[in-house]
């Protein structure tokens, strides 16, 4: 199999085994340059293990992995300079101040600047970009949870990474911070310079941000496609609600249009308060996870 | 190693040093220990020991002991930085690990030198019987420098071996025991010989002896083992520990760093939270 040039992530037959227990069975997926890919899955599905292998923090048991054209198990500092990593919970460098810390970390990336990619990202500009302008002089340990998270994202971006890992980036965000963060990710994606792999529990977030969604369950990729493709793949059942004769009815059906036509043909104008709910990504996702668990069990 | 790494390490060290002197709690700890030692000297300064005054005898010993506490700070900071993810951050940054270590050596030894000065200046004014001349400083400098090279890498090794701040506390007990048998506050020759033998295996005794050699009149060597300052032996033992530490530290640190990942930091954090809860 030849590796095409535009691939930023190329994972084939990835397996991770701890003792006699397989955490990842056979993970295969790709990400193209500039793509935003969401890795979705229940707790314990292997999301964090997968992402740690890609980050070069964990050595895999088997399989082929290429991240920015390099095997992460042998990635050098030049390779590392092209990655941005936002983990689930950072609480390091509590005594440092926001601006001081970002500016300091930026100096590590300066030698890796290229004509196309100026490194690092200017600290003040970045602070403003993530909405921390009023907190630039604060110590890290005095930031609120949401502020700290935004700083973590800024730190992940300070080297202008070509590939950014976001591990559950919006956990603990209020709705405003969340939408601000979504805007930031969309801007990054629009510039088409940064490929983003994000893990999330939040389906709505995955649907909003990702070009493609991978569903990881029980150590396998059980689905890979756009949100619409996933919804189509599983025979999603729409929900139809109506009242007739003063009584409420709820019915699930794969073809809501035909169902409604039938309903009117039978009851005519007696049908009131008709509502049709399309199969949501959430239902698709739950169906996928159930299906995979059924297959495993 | 390139210039960027050295610069980044240097600026880390300077920033951390500044933080430790501009933060109330740490400032207190910088002053408290030297102040306690000065107070101790004040009360024992006129006790006679074998023709000398205990104040003069103990001052260099305390200086040597304080210098050796760099080992403790190094290992504590390494453990703490591992627990809160500072090390993982270094690992995620290009050349972050070497810069982290350079910074740590600068901030720990810088803080230590400041602490030594905070103790030495008032103590010298208080104590009689020292012999401080132009040749005292080179003597003090080489013992201090070699002593730091002998103890800081060891501290890094211990900091890598112990995974939690709590287990770290165990390092302090043997250190305190060594202080008790290393002739810091009282001549080692008053101890049984087997204890003297144990004390002479470790850097602490030699750092104290080297400091006494630099700051006391030659006649004071009378209360030492072999009635001599034993410069060669001092250099030899400290150099041996330095070589051991410098050989061991990179291996142990690399092994420890390899195992750091987001989930190991998270798991440690959860354990810590459970302990508190």
Automatic annotation (TrEMBL), chain A:
Its main location: membrane. InterPro entries: AAA+_ATPase (IPR003593), ABC_transporter-like_ATP-bd (IPR003439), ABC_transporter-like_CS (IPR017871), ABC_transporter_ATP-binding (IPR050763), P-loop_NTPase (IPR027417). The keyword Membrane does not apply. It comes from [Actinomadura] parvosata subsp. kistnae. Residues 9-243 form the ABC transporter domain. GO terms for biological process: response to antibiotic. This is Multidrug ABC transporter ATP-binding protein. Keywords: Antibiotic resistance, ATP-binding, Nucleotide-binding, Transport. One of its GO terms (cellular component) is plasma membrane. It is a peripheral membrane protein. GO terms for molecular function: ATP binding; ATP hydrolysis activity. It is found in: Cell membrane.
UniProtKB/TrEMBL annotation, chain B:
The lineage of its organism: Bacteria, Bacillati, Actinomycetota, Actinomycetes, Streptosporangiales. GO terms for biological process: response to antibiotic. The chain crosses the membrane at residues 27-44, 51-72, 105-127, 139-163, 169-189, 235-253. InterPro entries: ABC2_TM, ABC_2_transport, Nod_factor_ABC_transporter. It comes from the Bacteria. GO terms for cellular component: ATP-binding cassette (ABC) transporter complex. It is found in: Membrane. This is ABC transporter. Keywords: Antibiotic resistance, Membrane, Transmembrane, Transmembrane helix. GO terms for molecular function: ABC-type transporter activity. Residues 17-215 form the ABC-2 type transporter transmembrane domain. It is a multi-pass membrane protein. Its main location: membrane. It holds the Pfam family ABC2_membrane. PANTHER family: ABC-TYPE MULTIDRUG TRANSPORT SYSTEM, PERMEASE COMPONENT (PTHR43229:SF3), NODULATION PROTEIN J (PTHR43229).
